[in-house]
Amino acid sequence: MPSYGVSLLSGGLDSTTVTVLAKEKTDHLTALTFHYGQSHSKEVDCAAAVARSIGVPQELLDISFLGKVAWYSALTNPERFPVPEDRDAARMGNSIPITYVPLRNTIFLSLAAAYLESQALHAIEMEGLSPSDVQAHIYMAPNAIDYSGYPDCRPEFFQKMGESLGYGSKLWTEYHVPLQIELPIIEMSKADIVRLGMKLQAP
């Protein structure tokens, strides 16, 4: 059963580990890297190096408009909102930090789903694959640290987004192929992720 997948690759530890894992589990994987004027722009170069190292095709997508619409964030507007140096959980409390980018993962997931759906629809409608033989997976790398502070990194967010993507897609509506959101490190600590990365020999 051919599986198609996209993995959101930023170039950091978490997304690198997940992308290596996704490669093992997916027949046709593409790494998607979004460049939106984020303050950690060096990660874009790292993402390209990772994709080359593990032999996965990469699409670098320029979505610089995101910094203009989601401007209330230290990651998209660091001159106005400096990135805090201390993200200690005890000090953060229940507040959402200024490093939160408004609806970033909603946008990322929508773009990733559109790319993946295009691949899956092409396989079904142009290559003649049976819909029952096609799988479609979106790999992302949120973890326990992320969802403690960011609403769009929490398990319930991804569950609802998965449902919404299905209702809005031809792939599910006509062919009943779900766009499955895969979150393999969602419950892991950083130490767990490091151990997994070493086990997978992630670069």
CATH architect. name = 3-Layer(aba) Sandwich
Assembly state of the chains shown: single chain
Radius of gyration: 17 Å
Largest β-sheet summary: 5 strands, parallel
Please provide a written account of the structure:
The chain has one domain (3-200): Rossmann fold (3-Layer(aba) Sandwich), CATH 3.40.50.620. Helix content is 44%, strand content 14%. It contains nine helices and five strands; from the N terminus they run βαβαβαααβαααβα. It has helices at residues 13-25, 42-54, 65-69, 89-92, 104-125, 144-147, 155-167, 170-173, 190-200, and strands at residues 3-8, 28-35, 58-62, 135-139, 179-182. A five-stranded parallel β-sheet has the order 3-2-1-4-5, sandwiched between helices. The longest helix is centred in the middle third of the chain and has 22 residues, at 104-125. The mean pLDDT is 91.
